[in-house]
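[#protein-structures] MJ: dropping Gmad2 immunoglobulin-like domain-containing protein here for a structure pass
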Amino acid sequence: MHTRLPRTLLPGVALVAAGLLVLGGCGDDPSPASGDTSPTRGTDRPDRPGKGDDRPSVAPTSEGGGAATTVPVYFVGDTERAGPRLYREFQRVDGDPLVAAAGLLTAGDSLDPDYRTLFPGGAFAAVSYDAGRLVATLADDGWTTRAPGMSRSEARVAVQSLVYTLQGVQQERAPLVVEDAGGSPTTLFGVDTSGGVAAAPPLDVLSHVSLTSPEEGASVDGGTLEVSGVGNSFEANLGWEVRRGDEVVLDGYATLEGWMEEKLFPFEASVDVSGLEPGDYTFWVTTDDPAGGTEGVGAMTDDRSFTVG
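AK: finished. C-alpha cells for Gmad2 immunoglobulin-like domain-containing protein:
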C-alpha cells in the first residue's frame, strides 16, 4: 500500500478533471475530518454520503421494505513515516447507526483489507447519545487499560478512531465518555474519558489522503473510473497511478480544493480507463512530499482495487 512514493508530483496523463465539490472551504462539511467547528447538515442526495462529509444517509434496503443507513467508520491504516493513521470508509448498516458503526470498528470489519482496528476482540455493551455526549459502555474492565503490546500512541489512535466514528455518525462534535457497567466514567486503554474526549486535530490523527470512491472491489463497465476522497497535501497536489500487479498502466495528478488549513479538503476526478484490458487493477493515490521523506510526516497513500469488465 505504501510504495513508489514520489518526491515531487508532475502533471500526468489520462486524467479528465472533474468539478470539485464546492463546499465553501468545507464549511458545509459536518464531519470531524473537515476541521469546521460548527457542523451543519448538507443537502447532498439522500441515498449516498457527500464526497467530503460524514453525513449518514438512509436508503431502502434491497430486501424487504426496511431501511439501511450509510455510516462513516474510521479504521486504522499504516503510513510510511507517521505510524498508524485513521482512514474513513463508508458502509451500509441496519439498526441503530451508532451501535452498528461501533460494532464494525471494534471488530475491524473493513471492506478494504489494508485497514484494521486497534481494538482487541469484543464489543461495547451499549453505545448512545445522551445530553450532548457520546456514551460508550464497557462490557467489562478489559479495555480500561492498554492491551498487551499496545503503545501509548496506539491507544490514543484507538480512542480517536471511536471518537471520529461516533461523531461522524451523530453529526455532532460531541465529547466521548466511556462508562463502566455501573454507569461511572472510566478510562479506555488508559485514556481518561471522564471529562469527555474531543476529536484531535485532523492532520494529527487522520491520513492526509483517504479515498471515498471507488469502493473496494468496484466494477467498471464503462470507460471511466470515478474517483473521490479527501486530503491535505503540499500545494493541494495529489498523484495517482492505476496499477495492474506491479505494473503502472496509467498515472496522473488531481488537485484538492485547498491545503493551507488544519482540515481535509475534497477532491474528485474522472480517470479514463477505456484503453485498459479487462481484469483486476488498483487505483493508488499519494500526497506530495517535497522533502522526499527526509523530514515531516512524509507522503501518505491510499488505494482501492477495482475490476474492468
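MJ: nice. The CA atoms of residues 54 and 173 lie 12 Å apart.
AK: one more thing. The helical segments are 97-107, 152-170, 202-205.
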